[in-house]
Amino acid sequence: MVIAFDIGGTKIAAARVGAEMTANEIGRLPTPTRDYDAFCAAIADLAGPGDEPIGISIAGVVDPRDGRLTVANIPCADGKSLAADIETRLGRRVSVLNDAKAFALAEAAVGLGKGHASVFAVIIGTGIGGAFVLNGRLVIGSTGSAGEWGHGPAAATRTVAILPNIRCGCGQPGCLDTLGGARGLERLHRHLSGIEADSPNILTAWQQGEPDAVRTLDVYLDVVGGALANAVNILDPDIVPIGGGLARNGALIAAIDAEVRARTLGSRAMALCVPTEAGPEKGLVGAALYASEIALS
Ligand SMILES: [Zn+2]
Asked: What separation in Å is there between the alpha carbon of 259 and the centre of ligand 1?
């Protein structure tokens, strides 16, 4: 049994996760984003008494060299050694994992990746995330950022479109993350057509064959599919489960799959990119799997 947490910029959800890998929610609290002591106290409150290990999935990168977090939307925890601080406070084993990595572990163990040796799990939500699991083990990387395919230059090489050059939250100009998520699709549509619309409306217009939306999606698929094809060429995974808000549109994921398969070296008869859910449940299960792995190591 593990007490698992899914921590985002607005809420902290906690659940008990047992050997059967189902998450039974204990409770949730709003995330204290400005007061680190209140943030740690909220985790301690939800964990309650006991000695089960604690596994945390959080929307930030954990540096494996010193355990420090880089987390933009919870400023009070940025730069902090969260696992060590909660361990000291509660006297329990604590592990902290990036949310895309938790999603990937859950997909590999109990999701679409089950039975596959190599799983590159991708999130296309507000922004872009990803993580790689090989033979059941998460690939962390030397700085904790393995699989973060959203933070490299975006390019439109098939459509030769001029892309908006926006500074990314990571500090670099023109990252895929600024164009590939839901906000990015909206930005791209505004840039190419001058039309202000939200991502569900853009996708509906695309599916109805509206010319401006068709043009935007052609460029979007070039940019996102091209970048994902690069990642697939490097990792050559068995399957790419895709979660996040935009993955709820099956036609979009099928179009991304067609783009990726046309632009990768290896030929595949079956779909590679497949839609799945990346909800709190996946984060909780992934955090619990990682905590169990750490407890056994
Ligand atoms: Zn970036």
From this structure: 23
123 class by beta-carbon count within 10 Å (0-12 exposed, 13-18 middle, 19+ buried): buried
Cα 80 to averaged position of ligand 1 atoms, centre (Å): 21
Cα–Cα distance for residue pair 79/87, rounded to 1 Å: 17
- Ligand 1 centre to CA of 175 (Å) is 5
Measured CA distances, 52 to 90, 194, 226, 228, 290 (Å): 11, 54, 44, 38, 14
pTM of model > 0.85 = yes
CATH superfamily of 2-97: ATPase, nucleotide binding domain (3.30.420.40)
Hey, how many other C-beta atoms are within 10 angstroms of the C-beta on 44? 15
Q: Per-residue pLDDT tens for 198-232?
A: 999 999 999 999 999 999 999 999 999 999 999 99
Residue at 59: amino acid letter: A
CATH of domain 112-275: 3.30.420.40
Q: What per-residue confidence (pLDDT) applies to 175? A: 97
User: Which of 18, 21, 19, 40 lies closest to 29, judged by CA?
Assistant: 40
- 212 CA distance to ligand 1 centroid (A)? 27
**In the chain, pLDDT over 70 holds for what percent of residues?**
99
50 alpha carbon to ligand 1 midpoint, in Å? 40
Ordered by start, the domain boundaries in the chain are 2-97, 112-275
Determine the distance separating the centroid of ligand 1 and the alpha carbon of 117, expressed in angstroms. 29
In the structure encoding, which two tokens stand for residue 200, read together? 């569900």
